[in-house]
Amino acid sequence: MNAVDTVIMDIVAIITVVLATITIITVVITDITVVITDITVVITVVITVVITTITITVVITTVIIIITDIMMTVVITTTIIIITDITMTVVITIIIIHHHHHHHHGHDHDRRECYY
Is 105 left (phi over 0), alpha (psi -120 to 50) or beta? Predict the structure, then answer.
């Protein structure tokens, strides 16, 4: 009986070791999987953040460029209007001065009445 008991004990011991080894391997594999998953998640998050940041930067830059463009257009338009206005004023002033020089007598009204 003793020899049989020893063999049984050995078999049980071997089975236990094998099971333990399998368990350890499983745990290690699980750990590796978890780590890989974590890394994947981190990479995904990083990529998402980077893409989002780039997108936001691009959008902000575009908006700034558009605003600058609009401002420039407005400034240029305003400048042109002001220049046109000044030019018109100068031209009108010159015309009035010339008119006054040519016709010293009376105002436009008097002259208009004379024509009729």
Answer: beta
d(CA 20, CA 83): 92
pTM of full prediction above 0.90: no
Tokens of 88: 């018109």
Measured distance CA(35)–CA(39) in Å, rounded: 6
Q: How does pLDDT run across 9-62, given as a tens digit for each residue?
A: 999 999 999 999 999 999 999 999 999 999 999 999 999 999 999 999 999 999
In contact, 111 and 103? CB cutoff 8 Å: yes
Candidates 27, 7, 32; CA nearest to 19 is: 27
Q: What is the pLDDT of residue 5?
A: 84
